[in-house]
């Protein structure tokens, strides 16, 4: 399957790029795990997820946690098909930029 190389300013910001790359590799991830892996505050991660969700690039779901005895729920984050296509295209564009001259 061919990917259209397209630089995406919405993804290129470092925190957004790191989050999208993580989700591309993992499929889904729990909010607290993402915050820990990317070394982000919960506030920064929440804002980043909200921005990407507004673009239709990620979706969240909440579910009861088997690891907790209280009523708190965990939040899972995943790329949408649109988000997967966007990060794939962005990474392809970066590869084109980084390719040696004459290799296009």
Automatic annotation (TrEMBL):
It comes from the Bacteria. Residues 16-97 form the Winged helix DNA-binding domain. InterPro entries: WH-like_DNA-bd_sf (IPR036388), WH_DNA-bd_dom (IPR027395), WH_DNA-bd_sf (IPR036390). It holds the Pfam family HTH_34. This is ArsR family transcriptional regulator. It comes from Cryobacterium algoricola.
């Amino acid at each position: 399957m061919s990917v259209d190389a397209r630089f995406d300013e919405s993804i290129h910001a470092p925190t957004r790029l790191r989050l999208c790359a993580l989700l591309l590799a993992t499929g889904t991830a729990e909010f607290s795990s993402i915050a820990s892996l990317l070394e982000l505050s919960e506030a920064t991660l929440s804002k980043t997820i909200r921005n990407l969700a507004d673009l239709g690039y990620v979706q969240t779901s909440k579910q009861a946690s088997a690891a907790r005895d209280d009523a708190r729920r965990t939040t899972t984050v995943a790329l949408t098909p649109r988000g997967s296509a966007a990060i794939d295209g962005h990474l392809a564009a970066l590869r084109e930029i980084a390719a040696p001259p004459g290799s296009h």
